[in-house]
Amino acid sequence: MNSVSQGIKTPFRALVVEDDRFFQEVIKEGMAQTVPACKIDLCRTAHEARTMIQSGGLNYQMAIIDLGLPDGDGLGIIRELARISPRTPILVVSVSTEERRVIEAVRAGAIGYVVKGDTMLSITRAIDQLLNGIHPISAKLAGYFLRLAGRESSREASETPIKRLTARELDLLREFALGKSYQEAAETMQISLTTVQTHTRNLYRKLGVKSSLRALSKAKEHGII
To answer: pTM to 2 decimals?
Structure first.
């Protein structure tokens, strides 16, 4: 397979949350073909997944999560992992093609969604695409994302930039208002320096500014600080 995934070296660790034995084997085979040296943490329940994420969520280079679990909803697992390790790419593998479920998964933090049994997009191909920065989506779901993009664009047009900031981005703004450096903000917020830099770039983009001074000015205009 001619892709970036061929160049991945150890250690590579993936979280797989799937209770169906057949699809567990399908996913394992897909991982073996794309990242042969991968260590897979396999969870069959939501409880097992939460335990794994809480103990080592930052260590995952990839996560593959089913939505229908015997003791809970996979959406909660996606949200938990996205909160703890926002840089971990999350792929949903599910039987559900319901628009509401698909969109909820994306909003929770998934960047790919494959319908089980999709003959056009195999699990192996989806994993390879994810590793190469492509968002794998089953073809039958494409229309959902076009409609979602249209709704998001309309809503964003009616919102002020400040309202589009996440809670963590607002927290970071307040840290900057106290005169803290990136490193000091990272320590206070208990996140990595890289994550602070990512939040900062997102802040600047959403506010349409290129400096912390302008960002703070806009925040003050809206009573945030």
So the answer is: 0.64
Q: Could you tell me if 195 and 171 are in contact, meaning their C-beta atoms sit under 8 angstroms apart?
A: no
Which residue type occupies 178?
L
What is the spatial distance between Cα 163 and Cα 207, in angstroms, rounded to a whole number?
10
Report the pLDDT value the prediction gives residue 224, as an integer from 0 to 100: 67
Tens digits of residue pLDDT in 108-143 = 999 999 999 888 889 999 999 998 888 898 888 877
* Cβ pair 33, 6 in contact under 8 A: no
Q: Is the pLDDT of residue 3 over 60?
A: no
Can you give the length of the chain in residues?
Answer: 225
Q: Given this model, what pLDDT does residue 151 score? A: 56
Kindly compute the dihedral angle of the four CA atoms of residues 91, 96, 98, 102, in this order, to the nearest 10 degrees.
-10
**Side by side, which strands form the sheet with 13-17?**
39-43, 13-17, 62-65, 90-94, 112-115
Q: What is the 3-state secondary structure (H, E, C) of the chain?
A: CCCHHHHCCCCCEEEEECCCHHHHHHHHHHHHHHCCCCEEEEECCHHHHHHHHHHHHHHCCEEEECCEECCEEHHHHHHHHHHHCCCCCEEEEECCCCHHHHHHHHHHCCCEEEECCCCCCCHHHHHHHHHCCCCCECHHHHHHHHHHHHHHHHHHHHCCHHHHCCHHHHHHHHHHHCCCCHHHHHHHHCCCHHHHHHHHHHHHHHHCCCCHHHHHHHHHHCCCC
* CA–CA distance, 46 with 15 (Å, rounded to integer): 12
Say which amino acid occupies 160.
Answer: T
Distance CA 143, CA 145 (A): 5
